[in-house]
Amino acid sequence: MSDAFQVEMERRDCERGLWWGNQVVGRALRHAGEPDRWAAVGRDEIPLPDHSAEGADRFYVSAEAALIRVRDAWRQRAVTVSEVFGEDYWIEPRHAAGVESLWLGRIHLGYIRPCTDGTYEAFTTNDDRIEPRAVGTRTHPTREEGLLAVRGAWRTHLRRILRVQPPHSPR
Asked: What pTM was computed for the model?
């Protein structure tokens, strides 16, 4: 695959997770009772069919073949960069989940979800809700403000785990 991806066996020998950074990008799932039939699913649990042969079904002959399909689907996703964040940050729409994820290189920072009123909810990569700064509101007024809240929550998390103090704070 490459050194960027990590494979982990999950649920005994029936599942393999493919990881990129701190996020699973998909899985290979063994078909019940059949060692030579593996399904590939994306991280949104959507099956990734085998398009390599005419009339092929949604199964692969090995876990490795299914994981290669997962890797290829991951590489083909539609991502963008934003002038607000710069090229190191990128945004990935995950249509099946109804969210947009914010990444910093290989690190998933969190995601935003649009609300019916045109505002956005923001969440950390661990699905913890990020409350807006404005008192009395439950959502962020714009997409960019939601994404900035995700980035801010990540920076706060980094400062906490690295025990970094802002330059103006007494030690």
From this structure: 0.73
